[in-house]
Design a protein that fits this description.
- The structure holds 3 protein chains of 3 kinds.
- Chain A contains 11 helices and 10 strands.
- By secondary structure, chain A is of the alpha/beta class.
- Chain A has one domain (about 1-250): P-loop containing nucleotide triphosphate hydrolases (Rossmann fold, 3-Layer(aba) Sandwich).
- Chain A has a 6-stranded mixed sheet with strand order 6-7-8-3-9-10, with helices on both faces.
- By secondary structure, chain B is mainly α.
- Chain B has a single domain (about 20-290), classed as MetI-like fold (Orthogonal Bundle), CATH 1.10.3720.10.
- Chain B has helices spanning about 1-40, 45, 60-90, 95-110, 115-135, 145-170, 175-180, 185-215, 220-225, 240-250, 255-290; strands at about 50, 55.
- In chain B, strands 1-2 form a two-stranded antiparallel sheet.
- In chain B, strand 1 (about 50) and strand 2 form a beta hairpin.
- The longest helix of chain B has about 40 residues, at about 1-40.
- Classes of the chains: A alpha/beta, B mainly alpha, C mainly alpha.
Chain lengths: ~250, ~290, ~280
């Protein structure tokens, strides 16, 4: 079992001020799998994954208790920049850097960190990352145009390419399709199922069908706690907890 | 991480130095006014005699000049500025093209340098006022308190109207529609809904205009007549606190003269800070209410 | 009250605010017309390339004032832009009593009469250096410009989506590099328009220059010597008894107006439109 787990939280709690929105969560993320965290809005799922790459603590007045182990090492003992380099994140709304070209957006992590790359390395990273994100064919002729002229779905895939370019071990997706149209959404879902060959994925979503379509494991989070977790087919066909069943049948959220 | 700390420290240092800077501003004015404060004490603000060659310095004529011109200017410009604010606030909401043009023009008015207002007033307003004075059978100086107030009134309109206009534009649409739905006319909506809603914004606008009028220098200096005695009436020449500094500072005779001019500057500074702070408090209260 | 009476009242009200609003346009139109008509005839190539002549002598220009104004503006920009951007950044990145204090002080500074700022520059620079100088005038103008730059920076930064900063940090970039490489470049248009707005404001300032930059009938590029400025020339020439100098004052006003209105129109219409 040990070998199969890349990231593990131990009694992880998180708060804004004195309002604890994540309560003692224990969750293990296996290598090369997609784990979906679903739950009604306000259940703490976004806050939870923002703890995993130490983004939560950036907001003023926030607190964190517990541990997050990345391949056995507590991330709170590592420099945050190292943690974030190894754990990439894609946000709800596409947020390409408006002042950078598509090319530079893919390389943004290296540019921002001041890591020097040769021309050949840069070209190689841009091409493979964009290919992995299913965006290469659409933008290969306009790499030096601004990323903000792309459609919403393309922008989001650009953001995924930007995260992949850093060759992260884990990719956190915080409701990556909630701001997109259905067609763009389908494309991103297809992409997610392909990506797990190279990276482990944690997907936060309030879209039950999406969790069912793309994930290997699903966790149901409610009021800051993980109510139930299991292989996705089992969660959707035979949930053990009555609250999970109520959520899946649309009683709340 | 060390880079981040250094950066954060740099930012805090900038802020700290800025706070220090404002403190020093105040202190250096007080210190430089010292000789004059010591020599005259409270008499400085109640004495009407300002005679640099005799070493006698009383600032009451300038205080009077500043207060007279500022309040006269407010009196003249407030009705105009509020009409403008209502007109722009109501009709640009309705998408009237002319309202946008007017809005733009008023912004341009705010951008014209004070010295150009002064130049224009000197060659345009002064002859007009002189002609008026001849008709009214009073000494036709042309320049004086009234002319200065007139040009000030024009200059502060954009300051009063801009914040008031924003307030009018912020009145919720459904509130207006509720009024209209009851069959109220535009006037009734303005009187009963818009004006009560925007009242504090109107006060803030007046304060902003007052602050600007109190400290305004060039235009006033050019048309007020630069007379160092108490003004006898609204048409007589005079001086304001700002204009006497502008006129005499570079050619001050002796340290006491300079120090007295700086003391006038100190009072100007204090009055402006107070007017400004009150205005800020009002604006803050309004923005919290929303 | 009868409907008729109410209607009449409404009509009177509308007519009043319309006519009073139009009345405010009158001075603007008068000023523009006077400046253009009187200033136009004063302007020639010589006006921009020659030094002033004594009253009565024909020809001559205002080169000394134009160069002086540019020098003063350059000094003011060099001082106020880094400080203003720093303060704006501080305000957008900080919460708490200190940040509120800084914000209040910036607003207060904006309200201080410019002539008082001139006194400060006199006390701090003219007196210790023992003479009037471009430097002292530039410092006075920098103090006047600082709040505009700081507030424009702060407002632009606050309006940037937080997701932009998060995106930078989530890639493993440090806070400092995220600010430098992502936040400040994205805020550039807003900051630039703030700087231009500040320049438009100080370009016409006269009062703080009266006893700092002081004026100079000759060309000067030494920041430690007095310089002339276009608005200063307008004042001195307007108050002189010579009609050919009055003429030049109108010409200089036209130059100044075109410069300032040009900036204002660029900011509003151009790509730097503030939202």
């Amino acid at each position: 079992m040990e070998k199969e787990i890349i990231l593990e939280t131990i009694d992880l709690s998180a708060a804004y001020g004195d309002n604890w929105v994540v309560k003692s969560v224990n969750l293990a993320v296996p290598y090369n799998k997609v784990i979906a965290i679903m739950g009604p809005s306000g259940c703490g799922k976004s806050t939870f994954i923002r703890c995993l790459n130490r983004m939560h603590e950036l907001l003023p007045g926030t607190k964190i208790k517990g541990q997050v182990l990345l391949e056995g090492e507590n991330i709170f003992d590592l420099p945050p920049t190292t943690v974030r380099r190894r754990i990439g994140m894609v946000f709800q709304r596409p947020n390409p850097f408006p002042t950078m070209s598509i090319y530079d957006n893919v390389l943004a992590g290296y540019i921002l960190r001041g890591e020097k790359l040769s021309r050949a390395e840069r070209d190689e990273i841009v091409e493979t990352s964009l290919k992995k994100a299913f965006l290469w064919d659409e933008v290969k002729d306009s790499l030096h145009k601004r990323g903000t002229f792309l459609s919403g779905g393309q922008q989001q895939r650009l953001c995924i390419a930007r995260a992949l370019a850093m060759r992260p071990d884990i990719l956190l997706l915080d409701e990556p399709t909630s701001a997109l149209d259905p067609k763009a959404q389908a494309m991103i879902e297809e992409l997610i199922t392909q990506l797990k060959e190279t990276v482990s994925i944690v997907l936060v979503t309030h879209n039950r069908a999406q969790a069912a379509r793309v994930s290997d494991y699903t966790a149901f989070m409610y009021l800051g706690e993980i109510v139930e977790i299991g292989p996705t087919p089992q969660m959707f066909t035979a949930p053990k907890d009555p609250r999970t069943e109520e959520y899946l049948t649309g009683k709340f959220g | 991480m060390d880079g981040d700390k250094a950066f954060r420290i740099g930012l805090n240092l900038t802020a700290f130095l800025f706070i220090l800077f404002v403190g020093i501003t105040f202190l250096s004015l007080i210190i430089a006014s010292g000789p004059s404060i010591k020599a005259f004490g409270w008499k400085f603000v109640i004495s009407t005699e300002w005679d640099p060659t005799a070493g006698k310095f009383g600032a009451l004529p300038f205080l009077t000049g500043t207060l007279l011109t500022s309040f006269l200017a407010l009196l003249m410009s407030t009705p105009l500025a509020f009409s403008l604010a209502l007109f722009l606030g109501i009709y640009s909401r309705k998408g009237l093209r002319f309202a946008y043009i007017l809005d733009y023009a008023v912004d341009l008015l705010a951008g014209i340098p004070s010295v150009i207002y002064g130049l224009w007033a000197l060659f345009f307003l002064v002859p007009v006022v002189r002609w008026m004075e001849i008709k009214m059978n009073i000494t036709p100086f042309g320049v004086g308190i009234f002319t200065a107030s007139l040009v000030l009134a024009i200059m502060i309109i954009p300051y009063i109207s801009s914040i008031s206009k924003e307030m009018v534009a912020m009145v919720p649409q459904d509130l207006l529609e509720a009024g209209m739905a009851l069959g109220a006319t535009d006037w009734e909506v303005v009187k009963n809904i818009i004006v009560p809603y925007c009242l504090s914004g109107f006060y803030a606008g007046i304060l902003l205009g007052l602050g600007r009028a109190l400290g305004e220098t060039m235009a006033v200096t050019m048309v007020i007549g630069n007379f160092n005695g108490m003004p006898k009436d609204l048409f007589s020449p005079g001086n304001t606190m700002a204009s006497v500094i502008a006129n005499e500072f570079a050619e001050a005779v002796g340290d006491l003269h300079l120090s007295s001019l700086i003391q006038i500057g100190l009072w100007l500074f204090l009055v402006n800070v107070i007017v400004n702070l009150v205005g800020q408090v009002i604006v803050r209260k309004v923005s919290i209410r929303r | 009250m009868s409907t008729r009476a109410r209607r009449i009242k409404d009509r009177i009200f509308k007519a009043t605010i319309l006519s009073l609003s139009l009345l405010t346009l009158l001075p603007l139109l008068l000023i523009l017309i006077t400046i253009i008509s009187k200033g136009y005839s004063a302007i020639s190539l010589d006006f921009f390339t020659k030094l002033p002549t004594p009253p009565g002598d024909p020809g001559g220009g205002i080169l000394n004032s134009i160069v002086g104004s540019l020098l003063l503006i350059a000094i003011a920009v060099v001082i106020s832009v880094p400080t203003g951007v720093g303060l704006g950044l501080y305000l957008s990145e900080t919460r708490g009593p200190w940040a509120s204090l800084v914000e209040i002080l910036i607003n207060t500074l904006q309200g201080i009469p410019s002539i008082v700022v001139g006194i400060l520059a006199y006390l701090w620079i003219v007196k210790p250096l023992g003479g009037f100088s471009a430097l002292s005038g530039g410092v006075a103008l920098a103090i006047i410009m600082l709040p505009t730059v700081a507030r424009a920076t702060q407002e632009t930064l606050i309006r940037l989506p937080t997701s932009l900063k998060e995106a930078g940090l989530s890639l493993g970039a440090s806070y400092t590099r995220t600010i430098w490489k992502v936040i400040l470049p994205s805020a550039m248009p807003g900051i630039l328009s703030g700087v231009l707005l500040g320049v438009a404001r100080i370009a016409g300032e006269t009062a703080p220059l009266l006893f700092t930059a002081f004026g100079n009938p000759y060309l000067n590029l030494n920041p430690l010597k007095p310089v002339d400025a276009v608005p200063l020339l307008v004042f001195n020439y307007a108050m002189s008894p010579y009609s050919d100098w009055h003429q030049k004052a109108w010409g200089a006003s036209l130059v100044l107006m075109v410069f300032i209105l040009g900036i204002n129109i660029t900011i509003r219409k151009g790509p730097w439109k503030r939202r």
